[in-house]
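so im writing up the methods section and need the Phosducin domain-containing protein record in one place, dumping it here so i stop losing it
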Amino acid sequence: MMQISGSDFVREASQAPQDVWMVVFLYQEGFPECGLLLRCLDELAIKYPATKFVKIISTECIPSYPDRNLSTLLVYHNGAVKANYVGLHSFGRRCTPEGVALVLCKSDPVLNDGQSGSEQAVLEGIRRQFIEKVVTEHEDDDEGGSSSD
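--- predicted struct ---
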């Protein structure tokens, strides 16, 4: 994920190519919640290279941005803010790449892998990955908690 500065922010957000979704991560160093979401976003940035992912220190982007609002994601499309997510609670009880992907694509097809050919195909892939992860976690929980003779 590309690090940008405050001076780069307006240019990056307003001059992104037409029809390219951009996810902006507002963070501060040393916040565990920010580190958790950053790991998820780094993974998504690799899986969805046609979506632009950038990170910026929150107070460089918005002076006096309150730490209580971290982690924050801003979603831009065609130079306009389309969504914002304030705090990790936006992404469910466990912040996973699959959960973040599902939230990002709830209202708009934010994520694009550049290969699936359609927004619907990408969204179906995200849903499938999310369900597979949940099923696997529950199977692991069941195996750990049961005993057989």
